[in-house]
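Exercise 7.
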Amino acid sequence: EENTDLQDYLDELHAFDYESLSKTQQHDYIILERDLELSIESEKYAEDYTELFSPVDGVTEALITNFTEYFFYTKQDIDDYLTLIEETPDYLEQALEATRSQASRGHFLTDNALDQLKESIDKFTSETEKNPLVVDFATDINAMDELSEQEKQDYIKRNEDLILNHYIPAYQHVSDELEKLRGSRSVSGGLCEFEDGADYYRVFLAQETSSSKTPEELMSLCEKIVLNEIFGLATLGYEDSGEQFKLDDAEETLNYLAGKLDDYPEGANTEFTVSNLDPSITNPNIVAYYLTPCIDARDVNVIRVNESAINDTNDLYMTLSHEGFPGHQYQVTWFLNTDPSPVRSVLSHGGYTEGWAMYTELYQLDHSGMSPEQCAYLKAMTVIGYMAPCVIDIGVNMLGWSVSDVGDELDKMYLNREIAQDLYNEAVDTPGRLLNYGCGLAQFLALRYRAEETLGDDFDPVEFNRVLLTYGDRDFEVVESDLNEWVSRLTNGQTLNTESANLVPYIAIGGMEESRENNMKYGIFAIGGFAIAAALVIWFIIRTKKKNPFTA
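Solution. The predicted structure, written as tokens, is:
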């Protein structure tokens, strides 16, 4: 039924005369058209491949976030909220029924993923009277002046009863029922081992990366960038100096970042609130998230931080660059302030949004006050930590790589082969978890390098970033077309350098003085001693640095 509806929407879109539309409307047309086409294609596989109970972003995680972030403006909002809480057990039972059906056909979580999910559920359900869904609700209700004291107490009592006697038991039931399905998965490897798994993954990859590039093209791009970063570190001898960003408070750090936006056009909202997540609802895969504001409440910008996942002030600085400025909050509010069509609020292009946040996170290191050498090291580690797993993910889930194949790829990228099993398991347990981040970052870096190569001294980062931001999150093919139009205006008809389309220099220093060939002998020698360090760092970095729980 949904597929039929999507086709009806696409037919209605095609009824518009494209040439009569404004430039902004034409962008919306192209973006919506590809979104609908991919959604129609994806619906063919939804029955088996929609993983409702993913340990990273499944319904149990999403519901908690939605409810803890629920805004109450009127009494009706409270009544609606309590109705949703009351209906959650039935909703979860329906999700279980769909999952049982999938499991009967061999589609289910791996044992590792199931263990992660159960651990998360156990952590949440172990909190009762102090559960965030109890405590946060009471705080919000007590702050509502329009309610009488009796009304406040009645609402708080009803919510506590629902959470303790209905909601938490429903989560425990989910854990018990999913345990009964353990071992139902019919394949031991990547998605391509399922009969139509490779076809599904190809569509999934296009959606996750906001790109029509082939799996092989994305792998090649990420691999080349990783190799350039490793080669650059090896030849220059950069390593972690232990140097740290000077601030250790989230609010102070965000205010600092908001004052370092000289490379970006004005127009974003820099008002925010930031707070730490309650430990009982933190997910080890999520370091922080930014809540996209409602279209009628654009000034409400909320950032949540998983304090237990922040290792040091450098980690805090990079995470808040990603979530705040010039990352998600900057990009989202800049676009909202152009008054886009409301339809854009229901479209999501994760490769662009996550890629933008990663791209700006790296360049924002240059404003951290740390030495260029330390910034170069942190940039390289971030690139390696997010892109190398993307290469592995595509190899395992699209090409059917074994653990040995993963090891061979790690050898090729001068990374420690000993982490092959871990990276293989990650790709099988949670397919595509880093594609938004790594492949999105790779495409932004490639576009910037090509623009710099083409324009030379005429390259202006503010205007380049303005082109990236204008028309909001969208597919990279549309971004590239917009950049070509910009470059053409500046160069009397020239477009982005196609010869450099798949070449990206060592971003930490913007290029190499000597050729890679001349330095490779020394580079390989240095890389040999660097491999173990890279292997250790990779697992500290590949965590999901942000997650918008309201984005599909």
